[in-house]
Amino acid sequence: MTSSARPADPAGTAARPPLNRRLAEFGTTIFAEMSALALRTGSINLGQGFPDTDGPEEIREAAVRALRDGRGNQYPPGPGVPELRAAVTAHQLRRYGLTFDPDTEVLVTAGATEAIAAALLGLLEPGDEVVALEPYYDSYAACIAMAGGRRVPVTLRPHEGRFRLDLDELRAAVTDRTRLLLINTPHNPTGTVLTRAELTAIAELAVERDLLVVTDEVYEHLVFDDAEHLPLATFPGMRDRTVTIGSAGKTFSFTGWKVGWVTAAPALVSAVRSAKQYLTYVASGPFQYAVAEALALPDSYFDAFRADMRAKRDVLAAGLTDAGFDVFTTAGTYFITTDIRPLGETDGFAFCRALPERAGVVAIPNAVFYDHREAGAPFVRFAFCKRADVLEEAAKRLKSLSV
Ligand SMILES: *Cc1c(COP(=O)(O)O)cnc(C)c1O
Asked: How far apart are the CA of 2 and the centre of ligand 1, in A?
């Protein structure tokens, strides 16, 4: 070796980029770019979906108490603390009439995010196909890829003001290689809540083709007007083939606590746990005790929370309509999806990159949640889980788009 030889390249970046092929297509999330843009321009950030006020004081205090009393400061049990597992089963029974065994049919996870990852890692063989509703929550595609699965999108399309599922398209997407259906209702980012007819069709298909179903129901308590959240596990033939995912983050406005859970038949919970134990093993010890108390709050908490979020939705929806957007029916979640074409725009990416300078508001182009980017191009998502005065100011700023 001569003295002029280049030093070795220990990371191998010259020959081969460090990021593996499974994840290479995903890059960094749009949220990083848009949040930086919000900061730089002093914009109101309606991009990412987290509340700007914390959840109930008594639940925060319950977490403080657990911490002080030394509950959960060391590794909690792998399946979750017994108090929380009991609270999850009591909640499923009280709300939906579903019975689960807290010892064998509940698993506490580090938020719904880990539940999704562990479910896919635990249930998929490489090459298995996953039929998922598009637009997707952003972790689905990456987790399917990490598990070596193949995603098969079924696109939700607007019809009479609402994004809906085309049942023929869903049926056509299922092949002999399909292992599971990945469902999300209430649906982020479209704000749609799947109807009884849509869910019945999903359930019938799952039974007929003997498929597993993973269903992300983190917005189960955020349904508005006459929409109703119907858990897939309540449909005929579904209880024992469905992995239901819940989370405290959205329901109790503590998204930083990362307490989620899975309810399913024992063999399915066991498969999810096999993956989960090598991801975080356990998480969020003291918060698990606080969430156990939160789940036992009286119906009045859930009703007031829903009414408050509905009022926020109305403020933002009125502002967006005023500003000239087409606003889709938002029956659930934290989000309103809009169509920008009435504003003379067609490209959501370009629109969202320019919006902070134009109007001082940050939103997310729905196209990032699609494989068929063109299908999502004119749609833009705004979060309304913010204080009313923030939403009113955002509405005022957006008004400048229409003049
Ligand atoms: C926020 C969100 C999650 C993640 O929930 P965590 O409990 O914070 O991990 C999962 N799915 C959907 C649809 C979400 O909007």
From this structure: 55
In 3D, which of 271, 246, 234, 277 has the Cα closest to residue 91?
246
Local structure of 88: helix, strand or coil: helix
383 pairs with which residues across the strands? 335
- Ligand 1 atom closest to 110 (CA): 9
Is pTM, for the whole model, over 0.90? yes
Best mutation site among 31, 88, 113 for ligand 1 pocket (most ligand atoms within 8 Å of CB): 113
Alpha carbons 180 and 176: distance in angstroms, whole number: 11
**Closest by CA position to 267, among listed 104, 111, 132:** 104
What is the 3-class SS of 313-368, one letter each residue?
A: HHHHHHHHHHHCCEECCCCECCEEEEECHHHCCCCHHHHHHHHHHHHCEECEEHHH
Q: CA–CA separation, 358 vs 401, rounded Å?
A: 8
Cα angle: 325, vertex 339, 380; to 5 degrees: 100
Question: What digits encode the pLDDT tens for the residues 100-119?
Answer: 999 999 999 999 999 999 99
**Atom nearest to 187 CA in ligand 1:** 13
What is the CA(184)–ligand 1 centre distance, in A?
10
Question: How far are the Cα atoms of 39, 190, 347 from residue 365, in angstroms, in the given order?
Answer: 18, 12, 8
Which residues, judged by CB distance below 6 Å to any ligand atom, belong to the binding site of ligand 1?
111-113, 137, 184, 188, 216, 218, 247, 249-250, 255, 258, 260
337: β partners: 381
Ligand 1 mean position, distance from CA 5 (Å): 50
Tokens standing for 55? 């959840």
Please write the tens of the pLDDT for every residue from 264-322.
999 999 999 999 999 999 999 999 999 999 999 999 999 999 999 999 999 999 999 99
The residue whose CB lies within 8 Å of the most ligand 1 atoms, and thus the one to mutate among 29, 188, 194, 369, is: 188
Query: Using CA positions, which residue lies closest to atom 7 of ligand 1?
Result: 111
257 within 8 A of 284, measured Cβ to Cβ: yes
